[in-house]
Write a structure and sequence with these properties.
single chain, alpha/beta, Rossmann fold, 2 domains, 5-stranded parallel β-sheet, 11 helices, 13 strands, elongated
Length: 330
């Protein structure tokens, strides 16, 4: 159901266990959690160890209002593999990796989530997320068929692709991103690309000449983000504004000038955040002027929040395209 179609909370009082496994799609579980809570559900999150490498448990704890369960053997969890499924109206595992599907199909229980499945009697919904080649592998398909035969609802995964391309200059980055723009739905311009370059690059080291200062003549590099904005059709564009003064005003000006859908503004002079720190704070501003203040938090949690907001904007567009993310520089 699309959020715009909802006429009111439909899961009021329902207790849901949300299992999150170690996939790059784990950040989407944040948006799913918000949707479940918005529909009135009480959600308990269970994460595998690998999942915590992609999204911090703190993110789910803050949103769900409940501690996140991760370890089968932590004393304070009090037999969570028994109590959680016993109280649940449904278990949702999203994303579900190939490893998770295999353990569920074969009845293996070596962590809290997989052991919990062996004791549950409630409906199970699994949303696989993996590379297309892995999804079509005979072993994976056999496990999926086994699960479906037992009554598990398996949601067919969307097909996407992740590609890493090394570049050395701003011009190369623009060329690579332009070539891939047509098949993308989201462009996140996170890197700090130089605004200027030498007009005449030296092929060798420039030597000192009688202690005299050398003059370096510079020219502007191409504005990658503005160039992509001019080429785009339906892509969601996310930019960043690292400012030292007038944070909101400068960020809003950049948002408008470059035709962005969302901008992440952060004050690089703030002590204890930004460069050289494991924490950061930011303000998210969309093209409707809606601002979301993100307080000081671990950078991984901040990244989760940014991706979650971008995903919400994509859903608001009711796009039918396959979500694919291109990451580059501003």
């Amino acid at each position: 159901m699309k959020s715009s179609d909802s006429i009111g909370p439909t899961l009021i009082g329902k207790r849901i266990v949300l299992g999150v496994t170690g996939s790059i799609a784990a950040y989407k579980a944040v948006a799913l959690l918000r949707s479940l809570i918005r529909e009135g559900a009480v959600v308990q999150v269970v994460m595998t160890h690998s999942a915590t490498k992609f999204v911090t448990p703190l993110t789910f704890e803050v949103l769900s209002g409940h501690p996140v369960s991760t370890d089968l053997f932590e004393a304070h969890q009090e037999m969570k593999h028994l109590s959680l499924p016993a109280q649940a109206d449904a278990i949702i595992i999203a994303p579900a990796t190939a490893n998770c599907l295999a353990k569920a199909a074969l009845g293996l229980g070596d962590d809290l989530l997989s052991t919990m499945l062996l004791t549950s009697q409630c409906p199970l919904i699994m949303a696989p997320a993996m590379d297309g080649g892995m999804w079509t592998h005979p072993s994976v398909q056999e496990h999926v068929n086994t699960l479906c035969a037992r009554g598990t609802a398996v949601v067919t995964p969307e097909l996407g692709r992740i590609e890493v391309v090394a570049v050395a200059t701003a011009e190369e980055m623009l060329q690579v991103l332009s070539m891939r723009l047509a098949w993308s739905t989201t462009v996140i311009m996170a890197a700090a690309v130089a605004d200027f370059r030498p007009i005449h690059p030296a092929s060798q080291k420039i030597k000192k000449q009688d202690q005299r200062a050398e003059t370096l003549n510079l020219e502007r590099t191409t504005d990658i983000l503005a160039s992509l904005s001019a080429q785009r059709t339906t892509q969601l564009l996310v930019g960043f504004a690292a400012e030292t003064s007038d944070l909101i005003a400068h960020a809003q000006a950049k948002l408008t000038a470059k035709g962005l859908d969302l901008i992440v503004a952060n004050d690089v002079t703030r002590e204890g955040s930004g460069f050289g720190s494991d924490q950061n704070a930011a303000t998210l501003i969309d093209r409707q002027g809606i601002m979301t203040e993100l307080p000081l938090m671990p950078k991984r949690a901040l990244a989760d929040a940014i991706l979650s907001r971008a995903y919400e904007l994509i859903r608001a567009r009711q796009s039918n395209q396959t979500p694919t993310t291109v990451m580059g520089g501003r």
